Amino acid sequence: MSETRDTKRMTMLDERFLSDTDLQQRQQELENEIKNIDLSTLEITAEDMIDEWCNPDEPRVLRFEEIAAAAYRIKFGVEKTPCTSSHMSKIVGMDLYFKKEFLLPTGSFKERGARNTLMTLPPVEKARGVIAASAGNHALAICYHGRQLGIPVVVVMPRHAPIMKVNNCKSFGAVVIIRGMNLNESKGIALKLSKLYGLRYINGFDHPHILAGQGSLGLEVLDQVPDVDAILVPTGGGGLLAGIAVAVKSLNPRVQIISVESERASGFYASTKAGHPVFTECQSTLADGLAVPLIGANAYATAAPLVDKVVCVSEEYIAIAILRLVEMEKAVVE
After folding, report:
1. Do residues 34 and 168 touch, judged by C-beta distance below 8 A?
2. Which top CATH class is 73-105+208-329?
3. Are β-strands 309-313 and 256-262 bridged in parallel, bridged antiparallel, or unpaired?
4. What are the respective helix, strand and coil percentages of the chain, to the nearest 5?
5. pLDDT on residue 183
6. Which residues, other chains included, contact 212 with Cβ-Cβ below 8 Å and sequence gap of 6+?
7. How many CB atoms sit inside 10 A of residue 193's CB?
């Protein structure tokens, strides 16, 4: 996106916190400070792993008012994506619509929650900066909107993170750290660094402001398809599911909310059977963005009472769906 277009889109709500010069200076300070410590010897304690916004012992249930506020807050910074009738409607024997979040600048719905969370930070936290752990889409969203809003960003990405997404995060000016054999290890490092340098850690699928931002998608669907009967929501950590469920059920309780997971990463299904979030071993799946072993506590507490059905699909069906989207919708999706 060009600087000219960014300027035209700016409103009082979207006002930059730091200038380009001050932002670059703060990013450089953070990079230098982190370089001065040996991350391989960093001791991470149980206390370091505590995230005050995501406490499994005291989960926060999302309210509709938070979603409405988030939708208004981000409306000039996250474009309303199309929700168009599908060419596959005749094949499946129903009116099928696709909400095309992949058309957003970083390619996913994660921008909604990222921008909302950044915009709700108090000034002192905006000045210090934020930190996140992500293998891709959440990191991209935080980095992109951090640059737009003039907020310093550090992201810790696991070693298996796609090189293209790593490079894109760097191109947005963020401090990118490649550490951890998996996302949980990266999260531990990010939480430790957040406490060492006073950075706000932002959980990509369970921070309450993330959930509220994702809920704006549900409001858009109701506006674009007023007579919708059911909404199928891909589910990993549960943030999108929780946001959409509250948004939609608050306005039209008759709409069914259906959670969809891979059979190889069925964390929400296992949690609903147990009655609480449970660790679920994830296997390799085409839906790698949904391979989250433990659903968020806030997300589960919010979504579980509202979801009508959970569907687990095979890798074969996921592969066929990707192929049909390319063939019939001319859409390339993850």
Report:
1. no
2. alpha beta
3. parallel
4. 50, 10, 40
5. 86
6. 62, 66, 67, 69, 70, 113, 116, 243
7. 26
Beta bridge partners of 133: 156
Matching fold, domains 3-56+110-201 and 73-105+208-329: yes
- The set of long-range contacts for 230-234, using a CB threshold of 8 Å and a minimum separation of 24, is 230/255, 230/256, 230/257, 230/258, 230/308, 231/255, 231/256, 231/257, 231/258, 232/258, 232/260, 232/311, 233/257, 233/258, 233/259, 233/260, 234/260, 234/261, 234/287, 234/290
Kindly list the averaged pLDDT for each block of 10 residues, start to end, along the chain of length 334. Answer: 47 84 96 93 93 96 98 96 96 96 96 98 97 94 98 95 94 96 91 97 97 98 98 97 98 98 95 95 88 94 98 96 94 87
Burial (0-12, 13-18, 19+ Cβ within 10 Å), 226: exposed
CATH number for the 3-56+110-201 domain, one of 1.10.287.1080, 3.40.1190.10, 3.30.460.10, 3.40.50.1100? 3.40.50.1100
Structure tokens at 33: 């400070």
* Cβ atoms of residues 276 and 251 within 8 Å: no
Q: Which residues pair with 201 in a beta bridge?
A: 131
Residue type, 71: A
Residue 168 has a pLDDT of 96
Cβ burial, residue 105 (10 Å; 0-12/13-18/19+): middle
What is the spatial distance between Cα 275 and Cα 321, in angstroms, rounded to a whole number?
Answer: 30
pLDDT at 181: 87
**pLDDT for residue 10:** 60
pLDDT at 13: 73
Residue 311 identity: V
Q: Sketch the domain layout of the chain as residue ranges.
A: 3-56+110-201, 73-105+208-329
Helix or strand run (H / E) with residue 274: helix 267-274
Dig out the tokens for 32 from the structure: 């230098």
